[in-house]
Design a protein that fits this description.
The structure is a homodimer. Chain A is 11% helix and 31% strand. The first copy, chain A, is globular. Chain A is mainly beta. Chain A is built from two helices and eight strands. In chain A, the strands form three sheets. Chain A has a four-stranded mixed sheet. The first copy, chain A, has a two-stranded antiparallel sheet with strand order 3-4. In chain A, a hairpin with a 5-residue loop joins strand 7 and strand 8. In chain A, 40% of the residues are buried. At the A-B interface, strand 1, strand 2, strand 5 and strand 7 of A face strand 1, strand 2, strand 5 and strand 7 of B. Strand 7 of chain A pairs antiparallel with strand 5 of chain B, so a sheet runs across the interface.
């Protein structure tokens, strides 16, 4: 198990943030089931906060701000393992997804649209929570 | 099992290519083990070619050209399932990885660098092939 609290944030490893104009894609995968939950982006601050706290932090491109995943919904992601790819420009975090759902629409995974061979999409997976209730919209 | 040959490429589903200036991230995951193999990018041409052929095609950002994954190494990716996320701006393809290795460095997965709690990295996984021999460098 990976614990950010051991590192104090003094990561020796350097990501190639130049590749993505300062933000890199980060894949969150359920550490037990292997299901891919979501893809979001990290800038260096989000990366450092993730290392320091052991909870996933991203950079919200739409809101242009640091995003502590689950801060609103309570569905935080506890980091269990961090991997980076051969080019040092993509992050893969294996997480324990609190609340059982990563998607803001209430699904376990953001990848709940399956594209069939005829080009049609259909929803796979069930809603874990009702986003209307969680986000008070 | 997903078969592109059934669709004839007439995909009704529309991705939001505007989000990424015409290219979107695509995650390739082993359809059996659930291991995340790599992340690359698709433009609309790569997406359509993937749908039509049932083999993963990407857009190479470094070479700025369509990239039929495995064309050089023989390690093509047979598409078994295609999922897209809630924002329609990220693709997840579940594939059968021919040759057993997705990474150009010879590893099964491009995500073979594990970041420890102290910030050090170490290589996880074994080399499946010797890139010197495969690419004749």
């Amino acid at each position: 198990m990976w614990r950010g609290s051991e590192s104090g944030g003094n990561a020796m490893f350097e990501l190639d943030f130049k590749k993505g104009d300062g933000i890199l894609p980060a894949i969150a995968q359920d550490h037990r089931s292997g299901k891919v939950l979501m893809l979001a982006y990290m800038n260096n601050e989000a990366w450092q906060r993730t290392l320091e706290t052991g909870e996933a932090h991203y950079w919200s491109r739409s809101r242009q701000e640091l995003w502590h995943k689950g801060a609103t919904s309570g569905n935080i992601q506890i980091v269990k393992e961090i991997l980076v790819d051969c080019d040092r420009d993509t992050i893969l975090i294996k997480v324990e997804q609190k609340g059982g759902a990563a998607c803001h629409l209430g699904y376990e995974s953001c990848f709940h649209r399956k594209i069939a061979g005829n080009g049609e999409e259909r929803i796979v997976g069930e809603r874990i929570f009702d986003p209307e209730k969680v986000y008070n919209r």
